Structure formats: C-alpha cells, structure tokens
Amino acid sequence: MVTKIKPPKKAIRLRAKEIYSRLITRYPDPTPELDWKNAWELMVATALAAQCTDVRVNKVTPALFAKWDGPEEMSKADVLDIQHVIRSTGLFRNKAKNLKAAAVLVMEEFGGEMPRTMEDMIRLPGVARKTANIVLSNAMDVHEGLAVDTHVKRLSFRMGLTTSTNPIIIERDLMPLFEREQWGTTNHLLVLYGREICPARSPKCDICQLNDICPKNGIEKK
Hints:
Structural class: mainly alpha
CATH topology of the largest domain: Endonuclease Iii, domain 2
Strand content: under 5%
Number of strands: 0
Order of helices and strands: HHHHHHHHHHH
Number of helices: 11
CATH architecture of the largest domain: Orthogonal Bundle
CATH class of the largest domain: Mainly Alpha
Number of domains: 2
Helix content: 40-55%
C-alpha cells in the first residue's frame, strides 16, 4: 500500500503541472496502445505485455480472446493450450499459468466480474500495482494510484519529479503532483513521450518541448 505521501515542493509541483499541460496539448486523447474491450481483456493484455511490445500483444490477443473470450472460458482452459497461443509474447509458461489462475479466482471469488479495488485486484496472480492501476483507471475510471512502468520510471527521474528508482516510491512521489483524475492520463502521456522523444538511449533533447523545464537528471551533458 502506498502511504505517508509527503507534500511535494512548490517548484516540483509547478513543474509537474507544466509538464502535464504541455503533454496533454501534444496528446489530447491519450489511451492505452493495447487493444481491449473490457476490464478482463485489458488485464490480460497488460499482463502479456510484460517484457513484450504492445504491437506483439495486439497480434496475439485476437486469437486468444476468440478462443477464450472471458474469465469463465479461460478458467476451464488447458494451460498448455494457453501457452501455445501466447508463446510469442515471451515468458509464456508463467504468463499462461497466471492467466488461468486469475480466471479461476475471478470466477470463484468475484462472481465472474473483475474486482474494482486495488486490494482485490492485486490478489489476481500476475497482477501487481502497475497492472492493477492501468485496469482500474482505464476500464473502470477508478483511480487508486499511478501506474509506473519503465517509461514513467525513466521520465519522472529525468524530469526531477522523483529521486528514486523504486516504482513504489516513484508512485508515492508522483501521486500528489497530479490531480487524482489525471493519474491514468499521466501514465499515458509519459509513455507516449518516452517512446517518441525521450527513449532510454539518445533522448531527443534538441526537439523536446520540455527542454526548458527539464533538469535532465541522469543524461550525460554534451
């Protein structure tokens, strides 16, 4: 559980507000790049995206959901069959085991409906805070935290919004910097900008529209 959130310094709070303002102008309707129709599908797709690209996951999920279109069907599936369908996403044995177990738990504990709280969501095998935040925010409009993936982790440090590399601490640092209803959108904005302008290697600082307010922490000065 994320607790003991300290009020951020005024300068950091103002920087975060300006970052959000500029990025929401650049990406006025940010959404997950994964394809999904409901909370179950978003959870499955997000779980499959671990150490895999969204593009690859979007090629796999149509066949997956055509074969097992919800938790009831997947709860009855053979794990080896699930493995076969999701093999190209990597880590397929563990992912298949978790998807099957999550489906069984959804059916047995939640009556076939996806849980709507962080506490219940992270009970699902393979679902940690990042995945839970993505599903709750995007599929249910429930904002219990801010998803910290590799892009959010990298950009929030470079932009001076956190001094930590621990996702739990980063989430704690970011939450008070943005309005609660902006938490899900903030994740999308940082992911999109991280992919387009601020990748792990060779960030494009020369064309970055945040160049004047970004402290560029961790970036080698030329």
